[in-house]
Amino acid sequence: MIESENLRDVALAALDQIKGIDVRVLDVRALTDITDFMIIASGRSNRQVRALADEVVAEATRSGVRPLGVEGHEQGEWVLVDLGDVVVHVMQPATRDFYQLERLWDDTAVGSERVRDPVGAARGDRAALAAPPGPRG
């Protein structure tokens, strides 16, 4: 079985191969038991969003991991690839800006010592988040 960090790296390499935009990794192990990492990336068009998701699926499969599910592929606005320990969200920029997943999962603890998951259960502390938010412009 592939370790979650290795699976994360496989997904990141796939996104890089198809030129994913503004790729962000969130270590959510302290926030939820559902997955270890969420990767959020953008594509410039429906076609690129689908191609990015397809490449993630192909690379994961080559690494011995079958996706648990792929949602939103037909529309190509937001494709979710569930690899178990890693969940990849590929979105068009407008969709990503509207839903702001980074804020939901990464900024929920601003001003608090305890982090709350989206349904309100306290989990871990703020220091457990691996990557600080990048520059916002």
Textual characterization of the structure:
The protein has helices at about 5-15, 45-60, 95-100, 100-105; strands at about 20-25, 35-40, 70, 80, 85-90, 115, 120-125. The chain is an alpha+beta fold and about 140 residues long. The chain has one domain (about 5-100): Beta Polymerase, domain 2 (2-Layer Sandwich), CATH 3.30.460. Helix 1 crosses helix 2.
Keywords:
137 residues; Beta Polymerase, domain 2; five-stranded mixed sheet; two-stranded antiparallel ribbon; disordered C terminus
What is the number of strand segments? 7
By CATH, the architecture is named 2-Layer Sandwich
Strand order of the largest sheet: 1-2-5-4-3
Give a quick account of the main beta sheet: strands, pairing sense, barrel closure.
5 strands, mixed
What is the CA-atom radius of gyration, in angstroms?
15 Å
Mean pLDDT: 82
Q: Number of helical segments?
A: 4
Strand residue percentage: 15-25%
Per CATH, the class reads Alpha Beta
- Termini gap: 39 Å
H-E order? HEEHEEEHHEE
The CATH topology label is: Beta Polymerase, domain 2
* Assigned CATH superfamily: Beta Polymerase, domain 2
* Number of domains as seen in the coordinates: 1
Unreliable stretches:
108-137
**Computed structural class:** alpha+beta
The best one-word shape is: globular
